[in-house]
Amino acid sequence: MITTTKPAGSLTTKMFLYLLAVYIIWGSTYLAMKIATKSVPPFLLSGLRFLLAGPVLLIIGIAKERTMPSGKQILSAVFVGMLLIGIGNASVALAVHHMPSGLVALLVAAMPAWFLGIDWAFFSRKRPSALTMTGIVLGFTGLFLLFNPLVHNHPKSFPLWPIVVVVCGSISWATGSLFVQRLPMPTQITSTAIQMIAGCVCSFLASFIFEPGAWSTLPLMMYEGWIAYFYLVFIGSLVGYTSYSWLTRNAPPRLTATYAYVNPVVAMFLGWAIGNEAVNSTVGMASAVVISGVVLMTLKK
């Protein structure tokens, strides 16, 4: 078994750079997915995204790390990839196809709550502090204010069912992230590549079942869609996902989860500035409540 680096007790320069990459790059991928799914169905897009990124990274990993994973390590990476990409990432792609990208990012901002709850219930058994619980309640209160159909300014502008999809995807993502430090995993780059390939297979399977005729949409993709696709592959996947994968193995889970309150700010700004998504006073107030709650969840770290 290959020994992984234990979480660092302090924020090193390397850890900060990986965090910064996840903060900024992943915040921008929401709009990129929104643009790309205008032409290509979301599950197919998710599969195509990692179909290219996974093999490229696998070649890099084998050449650089020069180690072959065991069968048990491969199965662990496949399992994590199914949870993170096959379910977690694909659910976000589906949601941004139907909802404003900035609002989907706010839903994902609840990720630390799922991290803490699942870790408490199934892994560390460490009960969250009173401050953390206050943050969880505050965060979900903000989401209720944002999506409550009785007070939303435009209750019929988009469907609400993708909220359930994002919640399920977030739970899957948090579970997969917590398993990374508890399973025998391959070396860093090779592990990430296997996860991408496993997620790619899951996404193609979902597309085959739920998106008949999806492949016929590829010739219809506009220039901006291809730009968004290649951005998702080379920046969002190869740089962003690799950075996140490194953090899951080397940083405390609560520190890794802090990306969740930076990504929505980036996503909402880009959605407003480039995607022409409306940001009214209700959205602004609810967003501030959500992000404040997430900050309280992770304040000690």
UniProtKB/TrEMBL annotation:
Domain EamA, first and last residues per copy: 15-147, 161-298
Keyword Coiled coil recorded: no
Coiled coil region boundaries: none
Keyword field: Membrane, Transmembrane, Transmembrane helix
Keyword GTP-binding: no
One cellular component (GO) term of this entry: membrane
Subcellular location: Membrane
Pfam families assigned to the protein according to its UniProt record, in alphabetical order: EamA (PF00892)
Stored InterPro entries: AA-Vitamin_Transporters (IPR050638), EamA_dom (IPR000620), EmrE-like (IPR037185)
Membrane topology recorded in Swiss-Prot or TrEMBL: Multi-pass membrane protein
Highest taxon, organism lineage: Bacteria
Cross-referenced PANTHER family: EAMA DOMAIN-CONTAINING PROTEIN, INNER MEMBRANE TRANSPORTER
Family the UniProt entry places it in: Belongs to the EamA transporter family.
Protein name (database record): EamA family transporter
Originating organism: Chitinophaga solisilvae
Source species taxonomy: Bacteria, Pseudomonadati, Bacteroidota, Chitinophagia, Chitinophagales
